[in-house]
């Protein structure tokens, strides 16, 4: 009789190897005896769909638990069982735990066959929801300002940008600025501050940052190094007609290009008309799909 150790118990014993092999067949895999880490990785590297990967992990954990339970019953209660009965136990346990799995399947025959053989409910990938992102001009007498800011991870360079449009959709001006900030959130905040400094009295601001829109309701959430500037900005807004809106990033390509221009440039640049590198976004009506 071979000495009992972890590798022998869980992956080298002929009895446990038969269990592993039977369950591998369910997932369309070939079992090769080895340490538990190797057995686990053979499933992790199988390019399963999210739902199959969840089921694989459930199956793996169930088999490890079952082998340990069988070992204790054999040693202390002298109970023996067959490979087929234990495989049925595993197949019954995995569906019972499957509600814990949140992944979706792929619309492939392999996924259908495996999921059906295990006896769990299919979880198809949800259909993509298409949302039209359209730029709308402001009311008469207002200026709409689209702003954006960001920081490049690779170079650490940051920039902000904004474009000003009237109720007819005509560009009144645009800016980009190079920034020395530690994060994209700082860049977004400074973009708002700069836009308000340059703006008219009746303004609508559009940003793709939900966090920035939240800062107007909860100023204490603003990064501490910008908090004084933000408070001064809010005081300035008390003398203006002001609105803030969130827009999907697909509708913010023009100012994203301005922010990138600022990150790669230096200082502050102002244009009285739209710069040529954002013409394509403006002529498209700033329409995108999310």
TrEMBL record:
Q: Does the keyword Membrane apply?
A: yes
**UniProt cross-references to InterPro entries, sorted A to Z:** RNase_H-like, RNase_H-like_dom_plant, RNaseH-like_sf, RNaseH_domain, RNaseH_sf
Q: From the UniProt record, which GO molecular function terms apply?
A: nucleic acid binding; RNA-DNA hybrid ribonuclease activity
Q: Which CDD domains match?
A: RNase_H_like
* Spans through the membrane: 20-40, 52-68
Q: Which residues form the RNase H type-1 domain?
A: 147-261
Q: Organism, per UniProt?
A: Prunus dulcis (Almond)
* Name of this chain's protein: PREDICTED: Ribonuclease H
Transmembrane as UniProt keyword: yes
Q: Name one Pfam family in it.
A: RVT_3
Arranged from A to Z, the UniProt key words for this protein are: Membrane, Transmembrane, Transmembrane helix
């Amino acid at each position: 009789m071979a000495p009992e150790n972890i590798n022998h118990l869980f992956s080298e014993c002929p009895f446990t190897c038969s269990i592993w092999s039977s369950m591998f067949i369910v997932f369309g895999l070939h079992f090769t005896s080895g340490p538990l880490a190797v057995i686990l990785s053979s499933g992790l590297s199988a390019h399963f769909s999210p739902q199959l990967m969840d089921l694989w992990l459930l199956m793996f954990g169930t088999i490890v638990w079952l082998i340990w339970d069988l070992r204790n019953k054999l040693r202390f209660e002298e109970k023996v069982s067959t490979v087929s009965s234990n495989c049925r136990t595993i197949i019954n346990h995995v569906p019972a735990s499957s509600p814990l799995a949140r992944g979706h399947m792929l619309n492939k025959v392999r996924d259908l066959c495996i999921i059906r053989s295990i006896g769990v409910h299919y979880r198809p990938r949800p259909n993509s929801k298409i949302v039209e992102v359209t730029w709308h001009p402001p009311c008469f007498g207002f200026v709409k300002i689209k702003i954006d800011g960001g920081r490049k991870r690779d170079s650490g360079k940051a920039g902000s940008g904004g474009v000003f449009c009237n109720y007819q959709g005509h560009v009144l001006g645009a800016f980009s600025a190079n920034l020395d900030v530690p994060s994209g959130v700082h860049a977004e905040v400074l973009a708002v501050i700069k836009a308000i400094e340059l703006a008219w009295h009746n303004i609508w601001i559009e940003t793709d940052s939900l966090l920035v829109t939240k800062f107007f309701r909860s100023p204490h959430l603003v990064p501490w190094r910008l908090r004084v500037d933000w408070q001064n900005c809010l005081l300035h807004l008390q003398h203006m007609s002001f609105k803030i809106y969130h827009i999907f990033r697909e509708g913010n390509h023009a100012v994203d290009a301005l922010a990138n221009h600022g990150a790669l440039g230096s200082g502050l640049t102002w244009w009285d008309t739209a710069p040529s590198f954002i013409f394509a976004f403006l002529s498209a009506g700033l329409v995108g799909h999310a």
